[in-house]
Specification:
Layout (H helix, E strand, L loop, with lengths): L1 E6 L16 H11 L2 E10 L1 H15 L4 H15 L6 H4 L11 E8 L5
Antiparallel strand pairs: 1-3, 2-3
Helix pairs in contact: 2-3
């Protein structure tokens, strides 16, 4: 089994670089190219609420001139707003969740050898 989770809609970050974003279709295409993996499950690990909170937090940090302030606001607002992420439990059941999803995933299984 392989669980493959990738960032999709996420602020630009350099850790050390930021080169790609993967969609569910893109991940399935890559998995099909391996020739030996079947998709068992697919979906969104985090939904629209988490995405909006991440972008909102990053936007607030743009206004702060010093790194220490950015770290402080990240910790404070991150903990204060964290409970709102539970709204995603409602949204992730919707087929539209991926329109603003934050991380997509595939569960893959190695194909059984044919006898």
């Amino acid at each position: 089994m392989l669980i493959w989770s990738t960032p999709f809609c996420h602020p630009f970050h350099e850790y050390p670089r930021d080169y790609r974003r993967f969609t569910l279709d893109g991940l399935k295409l890559l998995a099909a190219g391996t020739g030996g993996l079947n998709v068992v499950s697919e979906g969104w690990r985090t939904g629209p609420t988490a995405t909006m909170l991440v972008f909102g937090l990053e936007y607030v940090k743009l206004w702060l001139p010093w790194r220490a302030w950015r770290i402080g606001i990240h910790v404070a607002l991150g903990w204060l707003l964290f409970p709102l992420r539970y709204l995603d439990l409602l949204f992730l059941r919707s087929p539209q969740a991926g329109r603003l999803g934050n991380h997509c995933f595939l569960w893959l299984r190695k194909r059984a050898k044919e006898a």
